[in-house]
Amino acid sequence: MVAHRPVMVTEVLEWLRPRAGGCYLDGTVGEGGHAEAILEASAPTGRLIGFDRDPHALAIARERLAGYGARCLLTHGDYREIDDRLPDLGIEAVDGILLDLGISSLQLDQPERGFSFRADGPLDMRFDPSQGMTAADLVARCSEEELERWLREYGEERWARRIARAIVRQREREPVLTTQQLVSVIERAVPPPARYGRIHPATRTFQALRIVVNRELDELGETLERLVARLAACGRLCVLTYHSLEDRIVKHRFRALAAAARGGAEPGLTVLTKRPLRPALDEVEANPRARSAKLRVIERGGGQG
Ligand SMILES: C[S@@+](CC[C@H](N)C(=O)[O-])C[C@H]1O[C@@H](n2cnc3c(N)ncnc32)[C@H](O)[C@@H]1O
Q1: Do 121 and 134 form a contact (C-beta atoms < 8 A)?
Q2: Which atom of ligand 1 lies at the shortest distance from residue 30's CA?
Q3: Which amino acid residue places its CA nearest to atom 27 of ligand 1?
Q4: How far is the CA of 219 from the centre of ligand 1 (A)?
Q5: Atom 8, ligand 1: residue with shortest CA distance
Q6: Cα separations (Å) of 13 from 17, 41, 127, 236?
Q7: Is the pLDDT of residue 72 over 90?
Q8: Averaged pLDDT, 161-183
Q9: End-to-end Cα, the chain, rounded Å
Q10: CB 273 within 8 A of CB 206
């Protein structure tokens, strides 16, 4: 069963402009919601290549998109490896690319994945459960200074020092292995007003750990550059972000790429969204997870013909 409602689908289709005969890349295919919309809009001959790091999400997307046959190719992998993967698939350039960054409802709603501070589960947080360290491993091994820096930089957590110190004290007594163990350490560490504020006191710590576990911001800027380099003439890259750290990277890299392309021999690049596009109010009402979404789009020029 599909758990994730794709965000800003109308806007993504409007800006990506899928058409019959086109070839599209969805770097974060998840459960395939956007992918399905792109395949529908590019019927009967548009093709879609989908990547995801999460084998479970990919299995759901495979089932959902099976009816599109050879028009849709799904592969387990990291969109950061695009330069290694696309040539293997016999593809040099694509007409449009979508990145829908971050976490899906499917991942958030499964307590055993350890992404949610609202349910108890192992402190895991890996998009790809077959690779890398879990959040529990990180929390067990990092220094207090490192932890504080992660919480400050990736969580923009005001109480980073207090929380980092409390986690280190706690792990001296017993290992922090579950989401609810971590939540109770955070709740005790922050001052009472932060405990009962507008957002759950564990929100920022969970965001920071998830970013570190999955190296979400590593190479994001460089990857955008590699993706843009794969756009065919008039191709567009659409990026949906859900927090300011990612959005800032996308905004600055798009601007820098467009500036660097100005006056060059290659067809230029134009940032089509001077300000990010936001979801309509009725979408946010129907799907609160859309509320922080921002969509930015860059286009490769048409060249000589
Ligand atoms: C917001 S969800 C995408 C939802 C999807 N657009 C849909 O309509 O169902 C983000 C997805 O990106 C995947 N992901 C995160 N980082 C990735 C990476 N570096 N490479 C490939 N997939 C990634 C996650 O596993 C997750 O399934």
Answers
A1: no
A2: 27
A3: 30
A4: 16
A5: 33
A6: 6, 8, 26, 11
A7: yes
A8: 98
A9: 45
A10: no
24 touches ligand 1 (CB under 6 Å): no
213 vs 266, higher pLDDT: 213
Contact (Cβ atoms closer than 8 angstroms) between residue 117 and residue 178: no
Q: Look at residue 265 in the predicted model and tell me its pLDDT.
A: 65
Residue 210 structure tokens: 């998830």
Ligand 1 neighbour 6 (Cβ under 6 A): yes
300 CB less than 6 Å from ligand 1? Answer: no
Q: How many CA atoms lie within 13 A of 236 on its CB side?
A: 17
246 CB near ligand 1 (under 6 Å): no
Average pLDDT value for residue range 288-303:
92
Atom of ligand 1 nearest to the CA of 26: 6
Is pTM beyond 0.85? Reply is yes
| 191, 96 Cβ separation under 8 angstroms | no
Q: Which atom of ligand 1 is nearest to the CA of 2?
A: 9
CB atoms within 10 A of CB 121: 16
The highest-confidence range among 166-180, 185-199, 252-266, by mean pLDDT, is 166-180
Mean pLDDT along residues 138-147: 98
Is residue 50 lining ligand 1, measured as CB closer than 6 Å? no
Q: Is the pLDDT of residue 85 over 80?
A: yes
* Domains located in the chain, CATH noted: 9-102+220-300 (3.40.50.150), 113-213 (1.10.150.170)
Measure the CA–CA gap between 160 and 152, rounded to whole angstroms.
6
Tens-place pLDDT, residues 243-290: 999 999 999 999 999 999 887 766 799 999 999 999 999 999 999 999
